[in-house]
């Protein structure tokens, strides 16, 4: 039954950096500052997301919109938000654009996927050691 925790540990180990890297980069000054305006919504999942109440028609949705850089450069359309306080089409919020997505300008959320990655690494290591021990015991067991 070690396969279930092993699989879960590997998923954490692989999935954690996918969120940790962009959030860490933005929290440490990477990206372009500006304003995000939600222009459309897709992929409504109706699951818990942020502080949107379940009665909200846009509950669990991903928003796309226009990012206007503070530098005065041309606006960028089709930008997807990630963890921004956007609840409806038309909402505006300060954001940082990094690799095509808009993130909150200051966030400590990078710590959550970083901890998930660390837990995945520890779990994968422990499960691997336990599986190797089990395999060694089976090979060493005398056959009758």
DSSP E strands, number:
5
Tally of DSSP helical segments = 2
Tell me the span between the first and last alpha carbons. Answer: 26 Å
- Stretches where pLDDT is under 50 for at least 5 consecutive residues are none
Query: How is the largest sheet built, in terms of strand order?
Result: 1-2-3-5-4
Q: What is the radius of gyration computed over CA atoms, rounded to a whole number of angstroms? A: 21 Å
Mean pLDDT equals 83
| Share in β-strands | 15-25%
**Oligomeric organization of the protein chains:** single chain
The largest β sheet comes out as: 5 strands, mixed, barrel
- Helix content estimate: 25-40%
**Shape, principal axes of CA atoms:** elongated
Strand pairing plus helix content: what structural class? alpha+beta
Q: Helix and strand succession?
A: HEEEEEH
Write up what this structure looks like.
With 144 residues, the chain is α+β, with helices and mostly antiparallel strands. Helices cover 38% and strands 24% of the residues. It is built from two helices and five strands. The protein has helices at 3-27, 111-140, and strands at residues 32-42, 62-69, 76-81, 92-98, 101-103. A five-stranded mixed beta barrel has the order 1-2-3-5-4. A hairpin with a 6-residue loop joins strand 2 and strand 3 (76-81). Helix 1 (3-27) runs antiparallel to helix 2. The chain is elongated, with a radius of gyration of 21 Å. The two termini are 26 Å apart. The mean pLDDT is 83.
What's the short version?
The chain has helices at 3-27, 111-140, and strands spanning 32-42, 62-69, 76-81, 92-98, 101-103. It has 144 residues and is α+β, with helices and mostly antiparallel strands.
């Amino acid at each position: 039954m070690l396969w279930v925790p092993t699989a879960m540990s590997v998923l954490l180990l692989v999935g954690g950096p996918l969120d940790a890297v962009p959030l860490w980069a933005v929290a440490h000054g990477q990206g372009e500052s500006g304003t995000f305006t939600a222009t459309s919504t897709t992929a409504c999942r109706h699951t818990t997301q942020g502080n949107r109440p379940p009665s909200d028609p846009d509950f669990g949705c991903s928003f796309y919109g226009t990012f206007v850089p503070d530098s005065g450069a041309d606006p960028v359309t089709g930008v997807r938000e990630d963890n921004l306080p956007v609840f409806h089409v038309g909402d505006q919020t300060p954001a940082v654009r990094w690799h095509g997505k808009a993130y909150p300008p200051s966030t400590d959320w990078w710590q959550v996927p970083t901890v998930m990655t660390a837990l995945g690494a520890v779990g994968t290591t422990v499960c691997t050691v336990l599986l190797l021990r089990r395999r060694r015991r089976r090979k060493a067991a005398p056959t009758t």
